[in-house]
Amino acid sequence: MAELRLDALHKIHPNGVVALRGLDLAVHHGELVVLVGPSGCGKTTVLRLVAGLEEPTRGRVWIEGRDVTALPPQERDVAMVFQSYALYPHKSVRDNLAFGLRMRRLAREDIARRVEGVAATLGLAELLERRPAQLSGGQRQRVALGRAMVREPKAFLLDEPLSNLDARLRAETRAELGRLHRRLAATMLYVTHDQEEAMTLADRLVVLRDGAVQQVGAPLAVHDRPANAFVAAFLGAPAMNLLPGEREGSGGLVRGRGFRVQPAPQQAPRTLWVGVRPVHVALGPPGSGEADARIELVEPLGSSVLVHVRLAGEGETVRVLLGAGARLPRLGEAVGLRLPVQCLHWFDARDGRRIGP
User: Fold this and answer.
1) pTM, full prediction
2) Of 1, 91, 278, 344, which is the most exposed, with the fewest CB atoms less than 10 Å away?
């Protein structure tokens, strides 16, 4: 498997839209790197530039130490798996898997060996004579992945490959894909909008916004220590609460609409954002915490309960995540909120950057 390296990639579309802004990224041998970010942030553009389906405005693409920026797709030796399965409906699974190899005029024996090997790896051996219409969504996705695998490429590029599956199949296929990556030790660059996919599959996450990298790191490290307020609000379900506040005096007290917490980091500016994950907020009786509030909405989620509360004095809305066994509060009930200082995140209100460790 190969290493991918992207050096200062810029992409400006003919209509003037800037898709990428100086992106630098290395995907190491056998690593699965996941690109996440809101729609339009440039995730799919990165894949298309690596595959050779688009040309960068500036910057270079390297595969296994070779500059491939000017090479056509067929000379880059990468395989792309798309959101749509793009299978030939009139061909069997066997013929779908073999089609690309036949176009490359490989020997019949080599084609049979690769197809049967990949079919065994993906659990498709019993389905080789079926057509796509006779397969489930998960089976079709495995065929699409297998069609890439038989090529034995240097790297895999996967563009939201599970998004067409229902929730159960998506979870099953995600687990299969994770096991397959570990078994193949394949180099993969993976795009998804699904945070659960990103967190469970990635060796490293790359968070993009408006074509620029916001943070790169191991999934839990990015989740637990977001580099800025955007990453904090984007990564996590439910999203982190971000409360605007002002630092008062030299004692570290931060006061906002309906809450007060301390101590803020010494280097904190006067205006900042206080971040806290919903799972770290606790409910109690009025006057028992750093804020008083009223219950606005209760959403049972099965294994947990999401509670929306409004801070006193027409303050901010705060999300609270309770365990399934917790007492369900009543709509309109007055409560106190505990905001444990060890669970707080601090961000500069001017540019969103993280403050402190």
Assistant:
1) 0.90
2) 91
